[in-house]
Amino acid sequence: MATNGFGGVIGRTIAESTPWFPERPEPPEGAPNVIYIVLDDTGFAHLGCYGSDIETPNMDRLAAGGIRYNNFHTTALCSPTRACLLTGRNHHSVGVGRISELNAGFPGYYGHATERAANVAEILSLHGYSTFASGKWHLLPNTDTSVAGPYNHWPTSRGFDRYYGFLGGETSQWNPDLVMGNERVQPPRSPEEGYHLTEDLVDRAITFIQDQKSVEPEKPFFLYLAFGATHAPHQVPRDFIEKYRGRFDDGWDAARARIFERQQQMGIVPPGTELAPRNDGVRAWNDLTDTERRYFARTQEVFAGFLDHTDHHIGRVLDFLGEIGQFENTLIVLISDNGASQEGGPIGTPEHIYFSSLTGVRVDLTVDDLIKHIDELGGPLHHNHYPTGWAQAGNTPLKRYKQNTHGGGIRDPMIVHWPARIKDRGAIRHQYHHVSDVTPTVLEVLGIEASTVYKGVEQMPIEGTSFAYTFENPDAPTRKERQYYEMLGHRAIYEDRWKAVSFHQPGGSFDADR
Hints:
By secondary structure, this protein is of the alpha/beta class. 25% of the residues lie in helices and 14% in strands. It contains 12 helices and 17 strands.
């Protein structure tokens, strides 16, 4: 009789038969837990350990106990960076050449990662890991996000045992569009009862880990913790905003100079680095009116509170790992998906869609219109975003912003923390690397090879380059020989410490690009 892969013996009676149980996958001996923490639209200079004026003590704690990278790069936009991070391949290779909403119907732009590129959760599941995701997904087209599906590119169909979060690129922090597994759900509390999405995402992540460790304490887990912060809307409890009242009254030019000086003292930027000139469209702070300065300073107070609040809840995850004895043997990689965002325009906006460099939407507002709502910023009434002057400061000392293939778009913070392996704590690494290199690094240190076939589908090669060699060798030459960049027509190519970059005007001729 047919046995369908049965490894025992089936006889005429039970006495003549031998049972068989398939072996469950086992993780490598001593395998650590792995956590990817992803911040959204957080610039190179936004963390305290990268020179910021904003207080981020828990991320600074990770930096002090691990390694900071000052030559780490992303794709300049959220969906493509996440595709690279999870799959270890380049964004066009896997079909996510730009944000998932802009599915173009051409290879490289399908808005979801191809089944030929199994992600890190899918790979680790084969090796005995539990896999959890809490937060932003943004790796499937809008047409696939309804309750009618299709569900084949939702997180629980792409390697994650449990998922809680939001599927799109952004959502309200107070009244989010939430999914649990494959089901739409309501937030557990209202804003009036103290609800905030960041806290909720961390609650769920901790619950996922707690549930698993209570039953199988020796089994390692992979957690993908992807915050909505600090993407618009900049929404945060008021006490975190008030903490920063008055701190940014001297403006973005003074902040940028102060951050740059701090970065030099820290060694985040090497000696001889020059501060990039002010970006086009950013006015000098001293040229602004009193009303403009008052409103713009408040938008940065809100942003700072938003990041500080996120850091506070990251601290809850770290403390929980310590409480259950898992902190030392957890490999944590913390990154931002791209540089600080220009999508608030020159004066910021109370509603993100009012000024969008992605959609071309413009609504004529003046600061006199905006100042009327200054005390409402950060609350549930507005989908607010700060002006480009503050985004420029958040990208210090780099040029341009998110979406651009200049440094302000693609050069981002990365912290790697793993006490069981990393001994050079508090160090800075200068080797050139890219977000597609993170998963190959994790696979190397775990001793796991990426599958050549996954669920019957032949897999494309891993394209990233492991940077595990940097853990013990601070002066080792970079092993990343070259990397291309393309985003919304902006291009760049890196090779052998040189980079060529081109800024493209939307709708303009590529032949005219420099």
